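From the thread on structure requests for the teaching lab: each student submitted one protein with a one-line request. Submission from student K.M.:

"Model Transposase IS110-like N-terminal domain-containing protein from Dactylosporangium matsuzakiense, tokens only."
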Amino acid sequence: MGRVIIGMDPHKRSATIEIINEREKILGQGRFGTDRDGYAAMLKLGRQHKDRLWAVEGCNGIGRHIAQRLVADGETVLDVPAKLSARARLFDTGQGRKTDPADAHLRRDRRAARRRSAAGCRR
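Reply posted by the TA:
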């Protein structure tokens, strides 16, 4: 099994994720609460994949609470700035409207994850 990227669109009380492999095949997805049980279920789904990377929107903003929990649990987290997500959404769909599943899909976009610095979020 190769590396997977887990894209996340975080909110105060929920997080939508999508897991893809190197061939961009979707391996899993879901919406989880940010309470203890929801977070544990999301982490369990992510940890089914040994070589993983979490791409979280706004590690220094709306995604900070969940990014810090992931880092504290030993996960590798990359920050995907909201501005980059909006631009990718526009180029990918031809419009800039936001939906959680679409944003989770964009969050895991390898090109976006490679272009940015992970300062402040990486373990």
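TA comment: Confidence is low (pLDDT under 50) at residues 86-91, 114-120. The domain at 4-115 is CATH 3.30.420.140 (Nucleotidyltransferase; domain 5).
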